[in-house]
Amino acid sequence: MIRDYLLEFIPFSDEELNDILSHFEKECVQKNDVLIVGGQICKKLYFVEQGIGRSYYLKQDGKDITQWFFGDGKFMTSADSFFQHTPSIYYLEILEDSVLHSISKEKLDILLGKYHKVEKLIRLVFLEILTQVFHKLNAIQFHTAKERYDYMLAELPDISYRIPLGHIASYLGITQETLSRIRK
Known about the structure:
The protein is built from nine helices and eight strands.
């Protein structure tokens, strides 16, 4: 699946693609595993082959707020921490048994130096992510709770059956009671 994802963006040769993929490590991760804790430096970029994860932060009262979901066929990391080598404000948690492919910053830097196409890939992937972030911000600022829920389902169609509703409610910026009313 990671092979197909990369080829969607860039026409890598078989030799280039095999070399790039050799820098990734396949990991089977259990439900509820936390990949990174707030305050740590995120040292890996993950590709979710199968499964789902989320990034979240903790409020001062200890309540966690979901920032983002990462489903099948998407990259997952604490981007500022990974690329800037700074402590993450986010936690990364796996919400169901998952298969991930990870690459360290050092290995990614090797690939970036070796292949101009990888620089282009990173740029295109982050443009896609940035667009999704803007869509989420617009939804939170300008749409009703129902419209935000519908938007989320359009982006992640089966999410409401795969993860706890409390995570969905915090992602949407609504209470669980409001989410229950919307779902009816």
